[in-house]
Predict the structure.
Amino acid sequence: MGKVVAIVSQKGGVGKTTTAVNLGASLAALKQKTLIVGHDPQCGVGVSFGIDHKSNGVGLYNFYLGEVPLKATLKPTQMDNLDIIPCNVKTSEEELSFLRIISSNIFILKSNLYQLRNRYDYIIIDCPPTLGTITTASLAAADSFIVPIQLDVFSLNTLGRVIKTAKRIKNSYNSTLKIEGFLLTMVDPQVRLTRKILDETRKNLGNKVFKTIIPRHPSLAEVSQARKPAIFIDVMAIGSRAYLQLAREIIESNQNL
Ligand SMILES: Nc1ncnc2c1ncn2[C@@H]1O[C@H](COP(=O)(O)OP(=O)(O)OP(=O)(O)O)[C@@H](O)[C@H]1O
Ligand SMILES: [Mg+2]
């Protein structure tokens, strides 16, 4: 049975999609059958694999409209062991209907992912920068969640709300939901303030913070333009190695369960 991991944060631009895409690709490179679900109308996951959300292929929106089963939206990628489900919402009207359908049945993704779980070791869900309907449905479907944190004071201030939301969802929709880990992203170790916040984060969040730290590095900024995961551009780049290390950390901690 695959493990479903949602990538969540209400803050925009903290590296959720970068993490979903590069962690997913790294898990696949380490021989884990992996699916990445683009559960965000911004469609970053599809774009990162060269699928334009305006193209006419079948995607998550067609599933939510009841036109196709979730299975029909699976797309293979250039990597062995890695499939994606792109989000293909094209207009703001479609986005509204997308949200309406999800809020009318918050368990629709959970119940349909359930049928796909035996095909994969990991299913990673990329969420939008809100703690609203889509993130709620993603956390209802997930076994665990990762919170990327960009090390600035504002990020730390918003962390409390993510934890509160997860607790609310655990109490109302998903009693077994767990924290997979807080992930420090876009870290620039040369900056003195960063070090201070880093120490403080570790003190406050303890062993829930991944040992792996994702540095700020151009190899990761290139992903959406190159339209492929960083390990496909250069497996030895600092960014590629950081996400491979994160994938190893996650595989190891799940083996120990
Ligand atoms: N470690 C990194 N080093 C350098 N650039 C990065 C890194 N991680 C992400 N980026 C860049 O930062 C920007 C925001 O990243 P990303 O899209 O992953 O964030 P997000 O949390 O998914 O944003 P949104 O909330 O809008 O969905 C992107 O341009 C991405 O290429
Ligand atoms: Mg994103």
User: Anything to note?
Assistant: Residues 3-255 form a domain with the Rossmann fold fold (CATH 3.40.50.300). The chain has one domain: 3-255.
